[in-house]
Amino acid sequence: MPELRRMLPSSNALFVFDAAARNGSFTAAAAELNVTQPAVSRMLGQFEEHLGVRLFDRTAGRAVLTEEGELLYRRVVDGFRSIESGLVEIERRRKGTETVTLSVSSAFTTHWLMPRIDKLQKQFPQVDLRFQLISGALRGPVENVDLGMRFRDREEPPSGGTLVMKEVMLPMCSPSYLGATDPAEGNTIIRLAETPGDWAADYASLLTGRRGAAKGLSFTDYAVVVQAALLGQGIALGWLTVASHWLLTGALVPASDRLTTTRRICEFLPPRSRPMRPIAAEIRDWIITQMHSEIAAIDRLYPKLGAMDACY
């Protein structure tokens, strides 16, 4: 910070610079800041002289950023946004509201969390929930959020996370797809594009009774994979961390009597750069408890699957 103060003629110069860059005009910046246009021009001229570079090309009443100006503007915008976010968070806390950001898959958010978001909001009325959504595989560091759902191999070193459940999948389809049985037809297998191999080959038979040549659908977003199955377009391999709600409601039904388990586990991880906030830990525990209850209900509904033993 002492170095930054040395490099700036005044902190106000950044606000004037931001307004001029954003508006592309010294006159518009002056109107926004409630000062005169000559005052803006003088401040920015002093700023440029202090830095020893031109920040704007002034042409025909317009102010166009130079290459150096573009570089500075990107950093100023990022900095102002970060400061604004901190001030908003302080204001929300003052009013009794806390912001919690979750890093989770778009599929988990769409198919597991959304059906019970009202219950979550009633349980945590003081929380403003936000999401960092991942459309593909849940991997990568947990940064700039309060809580992240990730998968890891059970043989990997402990990550400091909290177990959600083991990775367990089950072929699923809609009741209408299961009921429309024509043995001469083949199954439509719905895949997540980045999933290696052909999961359907691991199942000698599926409950649809179809014996024809299989067809395929492939999507890069697992939320769409589940949605296609819900709409009766085929059979999807359903992760229980995502599709358990639809199994319980009957919108999806097992297309096999056998679960698939892997060496991986699903965990909630704290942010890498700071301790987990208490409110984030409470939301984590609420989700884990809800999911455990749901798997127990699936176990009662489909006892042959052995869902509880497989998941925990």
Structure write-up:
The protein has 312 residues and is α/β, with parallel strands linked by helices. It has two domains: 2-94, Winged helix-like DNA-binding domain superfamily/Winged helix DNA-binding domain (Arc Repressor Mutant, subunit A); 98-312, D-Maltodextrin-Binding Protein, domain 2 (3-Layer(aba) Sandwich), CATH 3.40.190.290. The protein is built from twelve helices and eleven strands. The protein has helices spanning 2-7, 12-23, 26-33, 37-51, 67-94, 106-113, 117-123, 175-179, 222-230, 240-249, 278-301, 307-311, and strands at 56-59, 62-65, 98-105, 127-134, 147-153, 162-173, 188-192, 215-219, 235-239, 253-254, 260-269. Strands 3, 4, 5, 6, 7, 8, 9, 10 and 11 form a nine-stranded mixed beta sheet that branches. It has a two-stranded antiparallel sheet with strand order 1-2. A hairpin with a 2-residue loop joins strand 1 (56-59) and strand 2. Helix 2 packs across helix 5 (67-94), helix 6 runs parallel beside helix 9 (222-230) and helix 6 runs parallel beside helix 10 (240-249). The longest helix is centred in the N-terminal third of the chain and has 28 residues, at 67-94. The radius of gyration is 27 Å and the shape is elongated. The model has no long low-confidence stretch (mean pLDDT 89).
Write the layout of secondary structure elements.
Layout: H1 2-7, H2 12-23, H3 26-33, H4 37-51, E1 56-59, E2 62-65, H5 67-94, E3 98-105, H6 106-113, H7 117-123, E4 127-134, E5 147-153, E6 162-173, H8 175-179, E7 188-192, E8 215-219, H9 222-230, E9 235-239, H10 240-249, E10 253-254, E11 260-269, H11 278-301, H12 307-311
Helix pairs in contact: 2-3, 2-4, 2-5, 3-4, 6-9, 6-10, 10-11
